Amino acid sequence: MSRNPLLEPHELPPFADIRAEHVVPAVETLLNESREAIDHLAQQAAATPPTWHSFAAPLETVNDRLSQAWSPISHLNGTMNSPEFREAYQACLEPLSAFSTWMGQHEGLFKGWQSLKQSDAWSQLTMAQQRTVENTLRDFRLAGVDLPADQKARYGEIQARLSTLTNQFSNNVLDATQAWHKDIHHLEELAGVPESALGTLKAAADAKGLDGYRITLDFPSFFPIISYADNRELRREVYTAFITRASDQGPDAGSFDNAPLMEDILALRQELARLLGFNTYADYSMATKMADSPEQVLDFLNDLARRAVPQAKEEFAELNDFARDELGIESLAPWDVTYASEKLREARHAISQEQLRPYFPAPRVVDGLFQVVERLFGVRVEADPDVPRYHDDIQFFRITEQGKPIAGFYLDLYARESKRGGAWMADCRVRRQTENGLQLPVAFLTCNFTAPVGGKPALLTHDEVTTLFHEFGHGLHHMLTKQDIADISGINGVAWDAVELPSQFMENYCWEREGLDLLAQHVETGESLPAELLERLQAAKNFQSAMGMVRQIEFSLFDLRLHHEHEAPSASDVQALLNEVRSHTSVVPIVGFNRFQNSFGHIFSGGYAAGYYSYKWAEVLSADAWSAFEEAGIFDPTTGLRFRQEILEQGGVREAAELFRAFRGREPSVEPLLRHSGIRAA
User: Is residue 140 within 8 Å of 86, Cβ to Cβ?
Assistant: First the structure.
């Protein structure tokens, strides 16, 4: 296979050589060298009018060198966490934050970018170069370059402290998740739990040298218990441990409590926003979003709630009646809702996640995903076993076009100890033009599916299949970019509330016959998904869809209002706000010890602070984009090419709204989302 010299194995992270003891000295060396190079470039720009090639391009090289070193370190911290690596990672956070602040407030650098914009050469710059300059000048102001010296210093202190606090929040959730377990010695206590899950629980016990079964709070263990265990007391115990993680409640009350961290994080964010001239952190957040203001987002969310809450109440009332009449549960508790919902889904649609598992062996699903991508976008995906990996479960793939590599990615599918929960895409490196040629993009694609047991392939639920497609959509956005400047390449420079468009778009292929035929194949018989089963799957697609929508609206309203209405909320203020939001949106029972917020990593340790609404905002875009494929055919090559060219290749070179209009030919409409979600017109 032909290779681009910039995608050879030796150009990728040498995971086998990365040691915890090397991290701090390596980062310190890189930071010192970067400071020296940046000062030199700023001095040059002050002495001689800067050009793109004398100033912006070499500066990008400095930044990319640091990014390529830190990216695998950050990834290993999330996927191969150990006490030594965690300590090294944490030791780098404050120096990295200080460097970022120093660079964002570097007046010489800022003046160099200003000079470039004001120079005669400005009109000769490409659209991508001009966009990069304008974004960079905006970001300098958002980093406090215009502040007086004492406020600049305070900005740096806040950013450094936030970096430490948000990392500690994430660590506490991981530690709380791993601290709890329950060992089961009698199989009858696990009545109702599917064989596939029992295998996982047995493997967890075996790994510790124990007989019987071990339940943990990792999702592949927690979810089957809460969904299928007939033992109501067991469901209550597991639910309680899960919903009280990292809090003052539950079995490990106070051990990893994130409440003080939340208070400090929220107060510091509001102080940061005011320092930069914004009324609230939510206003600051909108400065780089597609949405214009917090008020516009609140109107959007409240309108969705107005449409969805009445239907959600009907759905819950039906569930309550079913639980009482068919399951003998007089009053639904939180630990009953998922269990009763699965029973109702089976009763109404004669289908369950477990029933579908045999049709989704992980290797077949991965291959089918690649076939979908190949048909849609005219590329090929090929495995490369020669690339160094950080765990035996990991695979590396290249994306090629007409025989030439254009991108690569690491695929890390399965849950394991010392791996952060959830699913995500992160960039290993970005596409950019270098002195030596084109640097190709490489992604980390991470999930937490149930691992293979007993030499058999892992069998995925349909939900897990859609999760894989979702994350790969992010990966495509990163890898199929045609931008050659790092700051607008892939998802860089893309408004955060539009970044979920490709990921949510890709999920649609998990529901259509043409897509499923490529990825669903019975693990034993090789049979495709039978027509009857597909009909039931599609009929069940919008089962409790309004309940699902109001849950996302609840999280979004809580996040936005928390960052818009409160100066320095206490943990009790946070709880009170969540309770109030739930009083208007939630239809399921809530217990007093529920501390969901204490493990809400999206907003307290991820990138979604005052931005969780992005999932719903972008879902409007993705549903409307999908309707174009419904009209033309879901594998229509012309529409697929337009989606690639107008959305995936563009990165951050133009405004997200402009890109959507270019693809769809009009402004986005909320109607396809409501139709696809089965929400009746209000």
Answer: no
